[in-house]
Amino acid sequence: MKKYFHADEWSIIEEGLHPEDNRIYESAMSLGNGHMGMRGNFEESYSGDSHQGTYIAGVYYPDKTRVGWWKNGYPEYFAKVLNATNFIGIDIMIDDEKIDLAKTKIKYFKRVVNMKKGYLERIFTIIDDKYGELIVNAKRFLSIVDTEVAAISYSITPVNHDVKISFIPYLDGNISNEDSNYSEKFWTEVDRAINEYKGNLTMKTKKLDFHVSTSMKYSVLEDNNSINGTIDIIDQEKFVGNKITLTGKKGRTVTLNKYIAVTTNRDYDKSEIIKISNERVTYAYNKGFEELFIEHVDAWDKRWEASDIVIEGDTEAQQGIRFNIFHLNQTYTGDDPRLNIGPKGFTGEKYGGSTYWDTEAYCLPFYLSTANEDISKNLLIYRYNHLEKAKENAKKLGLNGALYPMVTMNGEECHNEWEITFEEIHRNAAISYAIYNFVRYTGDSNYLAEYGFEVLVEISRFWTSRVNYNSYKDKYMILGVTGPNEYDNNVNNNWYTNTMASWNLEYTLEVIAYLKKEHMLRYTELENKLNLTEDELSKWQDIINKMYYPYIESINVFEQQDGYMDKEQILVKDLPKADLPLNQNWSWDRILRSCFIKQADVLQGLYFLNDMYDLETKKRNFDFYEPRTVHESSLSPCVYSIIASEIGYEDKAYELYLRTARLDLDNYNNDTEDGLHITSMAGTWMSIVHGFGGMRIKDNTLCLNPFIPKAWDEFSFKILFRGNLLKVKVSSEKVFIKLEKGDYLSILLYDKKYTICDELIIDIN
Amino acid sequence: MKKYFHADEWSIIEEGLHPEDNRIYESAMSLGNGHMGMRGNFEESYSGDSHQGTYIAGVYYPDKTRVGWWKNGYPEYFAKVLNATNFIGIDIMIDDEKIDLAKTKIKYFKRVVNMKKGYLERIFTIIDDKYGELIVNAKRFLSIVDTEVAAISYSITPVNHDVKISFIPYLDGNISNEDSNYSEKFWTEVDRAINEYKGNLTMKTKKLDFHVSTSMKYSVLEDNNSINGTIDIIDQEKFVGNKITLTGKKGRTVTLNKYIAVTTNRDYDKSEIIKISNERVTYAYNKGFEELFIEHVDAWDKRWEASDIVIEGDTEAQQGIRFNIFHLNQTYTGDDPRLNIGPKGFTGEKYGGSTYWDTEAYCLPFYLSTANEDISKNLLIYRYNHLEKAKENAKKLGLNGALYPMVTMNGEECHNEWEITFEEIHRNAAISYAIYNFVRYTGDSNYLAEYGFEVLVEISRFWTSRVNYNSYKDKYMILGVTGPNEYDNNVNNNWYTNTMASWNLEYTLEVIAYLKKEHMLRYTELENKLNLTEDELSKWQDIINKMYYPYIESINVFEQQDGYMDKEQILVKDLPKADLPLNQNWSWDRILRSCFIKQADVLQGLYFLNDMYDLETKKRNFDFYEPRTVHESSLSPCVYSIIASEIGYEDKAYELYLRTARLDLDNYNNDTEDGLHITSMAGTWMSIVHGFGGMRIKDNTLCLNPFIPKAWDEFSFKILFRGNLLKVKVSSEKVFIKLEKGDYLSILLYDKKYTICDELIIDIN
User: Fold this and answer.
1) pLDDT at B180 over 70
2) Model pTM?
3) What are the strands, taking DSSP E only, across B641-723?
4) Which domains, and CATH codes, for chain A?
5) Residue A486: active-site member
6) Which end of chain B is more exposed for a tag (fewer CB within 10 A), N or C?
7) Beta strands A11-15 and A106-114, pairing class
8) Dihedrals φ, ψ of A507, to 5°?
């Protein structure tokens, strides 16, 4: 396997410029702060292959749905993640010649993302017959303290001669989307202003009227002392900049510090965004690069303190997991309940929309365990706020209750393939499951009374209208669905879907019992609001009692769907290597009629409803399904890995873990250039904490069953649990647990109860 | 129901102009001659709503496939039926003012297609304060004798005053497609020439390099005597014409006869098409309008002689069936084996491609019974010629043998929805069935040795690689298919598909036995060419023996597919009226999981393999499936009608017949404006001949079991059978059969054998 990055515990490093793989490096070197983000592009112009990308959270474009055969119920648009004003731009001219690393001769080049401190730095030396050597250092970060602020420090040191240097800091709104089928521009200019040392460019989207105002301000220093140069003003449509020209003296460092602020009408009134972005940039400018940076690093320290995983004895594994945690923290910060976790985050434009079931199924556990309760609560509130739209969506399909969209930006469905949009309805159960998961983790049952119950009821109503009663068999069935395994479409009775639907109804009934007991007043209020009747509840119970589950009797295994066993049963290991990945080598119909599974489906159910199944059942199903699974979704191996850990298949668990751990860093799926697989990064975290760490929550108690993979000397992770911060360190000899915050905590370790006040050390064996 | 056309036995008549429904009239008044065709547009400019359409057989455009999620195996393009040079154009100016029936005052208007003689005529009177009344008569036809030739006779008679008249005959290549998503033009000019009285415009398509050369020549007469006028030449890019101005004298008729010839590089070398189209147009000009017309009418007489159906006592039914026969004969003449029967013929642009399984399943029987054997043979040769492409198509999907495309122009697949393109594989069986049908009808077994066998073998190989052996059940299954009923997608074991696949293998084995006996040398040759082995044949036999057929035991009915009975069983009659048609009112997933059937599926099998099932079986299956069928394909009711006729459900048969008989004339599906449903017209013919007439072929013998619908007094149809032309006339009292051509013919009538030399009259009851 080709190695792109040097192994390093805290950094992602490119040594020497690799123009042929530049997009891969750009993706991996993306920065984000929840409010905005960008790929690891250069500040100065680059004529080589590059995908320039700047993204503002929540700003998107509704692209018209175009399909061959229009089906009733299709959404009208696809929500495109939108490339926005490029604000990092600083062109450099040396002796009136533009620096372009695709053409300029380079003596040395290094591009680094420091994950501990959250910045991107490039250090390079260019060389020219005329002016000799110049050392360049460009460092930037997007503040996680003031998320509307970015700062860049760009330094040049002439080694051999005095040279004429021009810096051209600019804002460029003349951008388009990489994945656009046509060359349409999505932005028009609202306003621009440019002066010496400062400028503003305000753009709006052609549809949906998103306004984004970007301001810049800069200063120029020589060896840390302010200097002046001659300034030309650049004022063009959709483009503002300064050209500041001065003499770079031999051996002295000239630095341009560029400060940027980005505001949108998502947060302020349209009439105010320019004023506010100018204020923010002035604030940043006055604070200065160093002080902004120190605050930023302090904030990162706190994030790492809560979420770091340390692996001893395997630098690549260490780098891989930190890379994942770093990007999860860059993508979603949880302070805006209108936002969610896009599949590519701020690292690319592929796939539309920002919210998939990935959020509830894969990402929530990470934020539950590593961040304040409010963060994960906001992920739930996001869906609560979309309840009305989910109800409209169900109605559009002729169904009752709420059907949450497969892909969305604002609560509306924006995916348009019938087998997914209309049929991959299991996503609805993940929304309910997230409520259950949140409550059991945080113990915050009030959430049910306040928000959760309404969502549970409407989803239960959806299931009730979506099942169909088969009078021949006296069973309820769910026909025409696509399960998590998208390599089967339009099947009947997907075991996972039926199981989760029934669980969902059962949980809603449980919550009713709880509310009746603990929140009687509120319950009565909700009962009236929702028009709940006893008949309706009886119907739910009837469906629970008579749900049909496909089953393979001969081997005592849950059948993925009706007719799965009619497929020819071949194992992945018996496939020719050249056939893999199937999705690149087989026609779609061949994939569909094969027994091969894209991602955890029955196993997803065993993971979610972990308590309902004994180890033997998990083992039998794992033994049957894992050899048939091609893991061609990045979300697959983590679930299998966790179950493998649980049933004692330690080597298998580790092998599966490796498939996602460095997915993007090692460009495993040959698609890192499009951006990173943000949501699956949470799966990797789960493989360690829920898998190797064996973490579960049962009856309000944190349970751990750790083991260490053979390849590692030691690993440790941190868990925030109900206000307590716990560090868990595991080696082959012992488990060390430290309560880093909190007074005391009772846990179950290897099924034995301990109360930890400070530290606990247990010898294994 | 709104009535668009006056009932008339031989004509399609619009009385008075109906601008709001103009597109419907244009569709219904289309003319075609197999080589080219056009909608019933006006010769003179019309600024009202209109869809100008001229189409040249076999000339198309490959439009790029654009889908959301690209699936391996998708074709690269969709074959667009292409609008070509408008050659009917004759603009009229009276006293320098353009006639435009959307603006000019009309006193009288009539538009008529005479189906007996194959022409379109408009007679109208315009009126103006200045010049008083003018009577206009415009008549045109596309010669079915010289299919490259068209002729128009355009006459104007001033009633009140002498008036200045200008005729502007032209050729316009500046056209675009109605159904285009973007305003792209598909044609560029190759050459143009314009002189007095004649011109040529030669265009080529931007892709695939189709060249079409159109020539015109004209003469002007006054009361049948040649006169001259002043001539201006119009010579613009993609447009050539003359403006001829003269005085129209009160009470005298001025006539412009325009002759057109259209040649393409499909038939001649590119370098020759201009010369040849000029020669052709000169030939037509020299012959003159009247003589061309007489030849044309004679040829139509012959066509009607062979294919007419006469219905007494029901003028609308008479008009309906003649309309269908007329358009079938206009669309396909069978003299070019590269052509086929497009779903819209020459009447519109909706749907791409020209060939669907409609040809083999619905159209072939019509041409077999009403035209020379060569015509239907050419339909078969068309597929034989595409065998190599069908093999490539199968290979692309990872399968052996040949998979014929769902939609095609030149043998390549050009449809791109996975559930259709990849899964609606039953189409392959229709190709084999057509061979079987042709041979049993014509008795031409040599076709098997010459062409048919290779196709049968390669299709058999396809089935062999597409089935999958289920070792648990010791059965062969066909998973992941879409049957004829497209309201179920990606199902397992569609009964029709499994049945036809097995039949297909069996027939191939029968043909082998026949060839071994009758064509041993040729068989040995083919055996070597095709690499046939005994093992392969045994495999086929094994599949036949162990094919799995879904079955509903409780009611002794074939199950449409696995799991069909798990659907909620509701009947169409119990649906709210407002829900119909389902495809306009229900979301796609709801349609898919419902029990409702779009078109004959199990019943299609009972129709094709008619001999294999007894009446009771047909009855049971009809009784079960018909009440569940919404007939939302125009191809559905005819098959049900035929089976209803056979099992004695005469009223039901007639009711179903009515659903297609006047589908387009009565705009039943509210889509006549897009063009006509050409292929389903053959289904209507079948409903009468195979249904009411009870026509079958068994053991080389023509069988008839006629009955007459209560609403009719008498009906008669003609059948060409192995060189004999038979007229069959049925009333409620008797059946009259006349051998109009041929020496004698033995037939089975009501299961009794008769040998007819001249006439046969049998009393019913």
Assistant:
1) no
2) 0.90
3) 696-698, 701-704, 714-721
4) 12-281 (2.70.98.40), 307-692 (1.50.10.10), 696-765 (2.60.420.10)
5) yes
6) C
7) antiparallel
8) -65, -40
